[in-house]
Amino acid sequence: MTQGTGRCRAHTNIALIKYWGKQDEQLFLPMNSSLSLTLNAFYTDTKVTLDQALKQDVFLLNHQKQSAEQTLKISNFLDLFRHKYSISAKICVESINHVPTAAGLASSASAFAALAGAINEAARLNIGLQELSTFARRGSGSATRSIFGGFVEWQKGTCSTDSFAIPLDDAAWDIGMLIVVVNHREKIISSRQGMKRTVETSPFYPAWVKSSEKDLVEMKKAIVTKDFSKIGELAESSALKMHATMLSAQPPFTYFEPDSIRVIQRVQELRKKGLECYLTMDAGPNVKILCRLTDMDKLKQELSTEFSQDQMILSGVGSGIHSLSENEWLLSKKGLKS
């Protein structure tokens, strides 16, 4: 195909059983399987246009034409589709990222999931969602999970074709997440750099992988029985164990900031007082708090004594990728939610 347009939205996901470390850097195969919750508060909208008249790929992010280096990353991802499906056209990619970029809020997950969905639509490839998740994975590991909504498992697999995501539960049962944004700035140490250092140097890392496998089994049981307390306990434990591997790397590093610690302590205090809430953190300083939707307003009120309204974002459960109409795309470009 030489012409075509596709538009797709993908939401971010937050891992509850963490993925941290690759067994294959080129294929983005993880060391352990993981499990996430897709959120509706953050998402990426992407439009892909196949245009034979273009001499090279074009990448615009939030209306800004990106550098040759950033465009090359996108081109390499698009080549996965071009090579397999004999697409000759150059491609214009326009993305509107309704997520703070590179701040530990999974912007790359929604970005590459949306891009995979948009190229699938633009080139009329009709790739099934499970297979599409294997393509999304090649852009960002966690993007494989953003193909689906609710609770999602990323099965680590043994090769590129069997490392994919599967939906587990739509999570439409009184579950939400409150995000405390400690810092919007781009991270000093990227997730990829952090993973590589941890895998290669942390003496705790092998135990982390073994522990994660056990946690995943327990988490899936808790989801089946809708045991919110167990889900929260496992999620908090998984996050803190992951961050412990970073502190034991050489040289050690951390994504925690002073305000991250303040949120962690506050969550644990509130839980002791009877407000059931549990924290999780990815490769960034921002803290995500798993709670019941029915408790979210109360949780926000409790945290508002120390953190501003602008720092707190409330989210329900997000859906999987879906196509956008032209009108929805235009609204997104204007910064309006559709």
The dominant shape is: globular
The total domain count is 2
Number of strands: 14
Which residues form runs of ≥5 with pLDDT under 50? none
Largest sheet data: 8 strands, mixed
User: What name is given to the CATH topology of the largest domain?
Assistant: Ribosomal Protein S5, domain 2
Helix/strand-derived category reads alpha+beta
Q: What share of residues are in beta strands? A: 15-25%
Cα distance spanning the termini: 30 Å
Helix content: 25-40%
CATH class of the largest domain: Alpha Beta
- CATH level-two architecture of the largest domain: 2-Layer Sandwich
Give average pLDDT, whole number: 94
Following the backbone from N to C, one meets helices and strands in this order, namely EEEEEEHEHHEEEHHHHEEHEEH
Fold blueprint:
Elements: E1 3-17, E2 22-24, E3 29-30, E4 34-51, E5 58-61, E6 64-65, H1 68-85, E7 90-98, H2 107-122, H3 129-137, E8 151-155, E9 164-169, E10 176-180, H4 191-201, H5 205-224, H6 228-247, H7 258-272, E11 277-280, E12 287-291, H8 296-303, E13 312-315, E14 322-323, H9 326-333
Parallel strand pairs: 5-7
Antiparallel strand pairs: 1-4, 1-14, 2-3, 4-7, 4-8, 5-6, 8-9, 10-12, 10-13, 11-12
Helix pairs in contact: 2-3, 5-6
Which tags fit this structure?
2 domains; 9 helices; 14 strands; globular; 338 residues; alpha+beta; 37% helix; Alpha-Beta Plaits; Ribosomal Protein S5, domain 2
